[in-house]
UniProtKB/TrEMBL annotation, chains A, B:
Keywords: Magnesium, Metal-binding, Molybdenum, Molybdenum cofactor biosynthesis, Transferase. One of its GO terms (molecular function) is metal ion binding. NCBIfam families: molyb_syn. Belongs to the MoeA family. CDD domains: MoeA (cd00887). Residues 177-315 form the MoaB/Mog domain. This is Molybdopterin molybdenumtransferase. Pfam families: MoCF_biosynth, MoeA_C, MoeA_N.
Length: 400, 400
């Protein structure tokens, strides 16, 4: 049995790119940029007025002038006017081009306008160049503003709009299918017999993938060798990765391992020194399809999704595999077995210290699906110690 | 001019519920649950086998028996069998009902099966009751597992599936429209004249709303009184809230304030002691439509979206208005004016302390759209001090 470090290496070694695609701007939130975004013009593209008021030549004010004849109005979105009289002024609106010949804007609050003349009020502070956002101050034309590889937040989408990119090249998301097995499972809308339960892991895993931007279809395969083989064969061709929930243990009706082997899937690992999720199985049809066979227990399958599938997916997209989030235990915790333990915790941010704190919410084992709803995350407690004192800091995988 | 505490109170006081709706399970991620979810059966619903192996009566083992004749196989998803012979065994599969008359499961790894008999191997540890998940251990039928008001993460969706809820009642999200004004704006796909710029704030704000699960339409209104009035009138009827970007300053062509007043919108606040975002305006057509008029500068409008629109939306949905996240400044910072300052920062989690750390990424003012792409969040630095030493902890509003 291997440890989580080895398992992580094996999983991440099979990460591969799924190419790029061109997507409309408004559908790009959360995607990974696959092109550079450059400034198509200077930022701002012209000397931009930042206050409604009047535009003058600063020299005129400095030489003592306080009253300026108004010679017109420079609206936002209108071609540039000129201030022809060095002792005159133009009214200007926020967002307008600064008129040629002017260099200073005085806001309306600081002037009094009467009979076509603007007089600067007593006590107004005027500095030459004020209230003007100079062309090219923020960025120069052709500067790279956002580099390929950036995750697209609202900020990047605003930049894309500004530089005229109505579509963006982004990393293509791999196509996934979540396969549930086990004849004890019935659909959500069915009334289960006493010996049956409803499919639920598939929904949990599907939602986790959706949080990462990946869509996944759901498929149920019955406990029958031929059906298992035929369906898996189709899935290996049609999808970039398969998440199997259940069906890889030693049961008589667990046809999955045999079918996968038959179909050319290479096993990279089976069983990891961890709890939950010890029976985790991972393999691939090289270059074609990656297969995560998750243990059937709900806590185990969800934990393996967070700890292996998420990092693999991020690496496929060219991102750091691990989010690099850490949290501090807020009370002592004990765990005896020589396994990495993924402790369910509730998280909170401490207003005094800025620390992310983790409260254990233990639950009743890997079958205790309901407990996941009381927690926010898994805290990764290392092997090789059995006491985890209050104040210890560990990696955390949060799902809300 | 009011401070941010007063502004927050005024904004949150206008929060209201938008009712509930019934949504298919697979579309519920991130929504707010508006019903209790109760266990329809015990969790687990039967004594559930947790390992593939054999089921026996523990007493028989305790009395020294080590070899058990096999009397059949209890598959998962099959009706319950009975262990009629107290000295016999049944093969059992993970997820199956424990056969009546058995109470203990011994995994295949610990038995040797030959000639229809299972013999427990030397050194196997067997405890009566092992590898059985007893009916009702986790939750009892009718127990409330998730309460109304819970945000729906993958965990809650798994619970919903298990208890047979293919649709859930969730809080309805308010309908939003983002209105941009200003004749200097042209569409993203247009080639702007030298005095024009492309619409961008609307995309940034729309993406922020989408992160919170709210869909928003985009609308541009030209700088013309009649058009402004007619479009705003329609929007006040058709949407639950309006976000205006620009058009509420003192400019000659800023028809928005007059049009809103004409249409019966009550102003609750205008101008807040904060930077950026000082000209923020907020009002409502009581009980009908809430209006956020955001300053036109990109950093200002985005910051006001994070600091006022997000909390208002969360309160409307019955959630805590503020996410309660705090971060620690990783270097000294100075800010003189007597205004609450929203500092753009890049965040990282410190692996030693579990602290969320914030590095200032200042940018070149409220027009510097590109700088938002270099930051992750706004850190809220209070008024009344001008030095913010390294190690200070403040509320943080993150957008990635």
């Amino acid at each position: 049995m291997i440890d989580i470090q080895q398992a992580t290496e094996l999983v991440l070694a099979s990460a591969r790119s799924f190419g790029t695609e061109k997507v409309p701007l408004q559908e790009c939130l959360g995607r990974i940029l696959a092109q550079d975004m450059a400034a198509d013009r200077d930022f701002p593209p012209f000397h931009r007025v930042t206050m409604d008021g009047i535009a003058i030549l600063g020299e005129a004010y400095e030489s003592g002038l306080r009253t300026f004849p108004l010679q017109g109005t420079q609206a936002a979105g209108a071609p540039q006017l000129s201030l022809n009289d060095k002792a005159g002024a133009l009214e200007v609106m926020t967002g307008a081009m600064l008129p040629a010949g002017a260099d200073t804007v005085i806001r309306y609050e600081d002037v009094k306008i009467e009979h076509g003349q603007a007089t600067i009020v007593e006590g107004a502070a005027v500095k030459t160049g004020q209230n003007v956002h100079l062309q090219g101050t923020d960025r120069r034309q052709s500067d790279i503003i956002v580099k390929a590889g950036a995750p697209l937040s609202p900020a990047e989408l605003g930049v894309a709009a500004t530089v005229g990119l109505s579509h963006l090249y982004v990393q293509r998301m791999p196509r996934a299918v979540i396969v549930s097995t086990g004849d004890e499972l019935v659909p959500v809308s069915a009334a289960p017999a006493p010996y049956q339960i409803r499919t639920s892991n598939a929904y949990t895993i599907q939602a986790a993938l959706r949080q990462w931007g990946a869509a996944a279809e759901l498929l149920h395969i019955s406990d029958e060798l031929e059906a298992t083989r035929a369906e898996l064969k189709r899935c290996l061709q049609a999808y970039d990765f398969i998440l199997l929930s259940g069906g890889v243990s030693k049961g008589k009706f667990d046809y999955v391992p045999a079918a996968l082997t038959d179909l050319g899937v290479k096993k990279h690992l089976h069983k990891v020194k961890q709890r939950p999720g010890k029976p985790f199985w991972f393999g691939e049809l090289p270059g074609q399809c990656t297969v995560f066979a998750l243990p059937g227990n709900p806590v185990s399958s969800f934990m393996c999704t967070q700890r292996y599938v998420g990092p693999w997916l991020r690496k496929c997209l060219g991102q750091p595999a691990f989010p690099g989030a850490f949290a501090m235990l807020d009370r002592d915790f004990h765990f005896r077995p020589d396994l990495t333990y993924f402790l369910q915790v509730r998280l909170y941010s401490d207003a005094e210290s800025g620390r992310l704190m983790a409260s254990p919410v233990e639950g009743k084992g890997s079958g205790d699906l309901a407990n996941l709803a009381d927690a926010d995350a898994f805290l990764e407690l290392p092997r090789g110690q059995d006491t985890f004192p209050k104040g210890g800091v560990y990696p955390v995988y949060r799902y809300r």
